[in-house]
Amino acid sequence: MANDSDIRHRMDRVEEIIEQFDPDEISLDEGSEIYEEGQELLAEIRNLLHEDEGEIIKIE
């Protein structure tokens, strides 16, 4: 079963990554790196949620 804090931690990091995507403040290389990190985190979140399919979990 997915732990709420596991999902929340990943979601918080994804939100931080999204906030960093200001074209005036980030280079293309940095943008590519954090984009890949964000994609990996989203895949992990999907997998965690998929594992618990059919179970109700509460994310606070």
Principal-axes shape call: elongated
Structural class: mainly alpha
Q: How many strand segments? A: 0
Biggest sheet layout: none
Spatial gap, N to C terminus: 16 Å
- Radius of gyration from the CA trace? 14 Å
> Helix proportion of residues, in percent?
55-70%
Instruction: Identify low-pLDDT runs.
Output: none
Number of domains: 1
DSSP strand content: under 5%
Please provide the ordered H/E string of secondary-structure elements.
HH
Instruction: Look at the structure and give the mean pLDDT.
Output: 83
Helical stretch count? 2
Could you explain the architecture of this structure?
The protein has 60 residues and is mostly helical. The chain contains 2 helices and no strands. The chain has one domain. Helix content is 68%, strand content 0%. The two termini are 16 Å apart.
Provide keyphrases for this structure:
single chain; 60 residues; mainly alpha; 2 helices; 0% strand; elongated
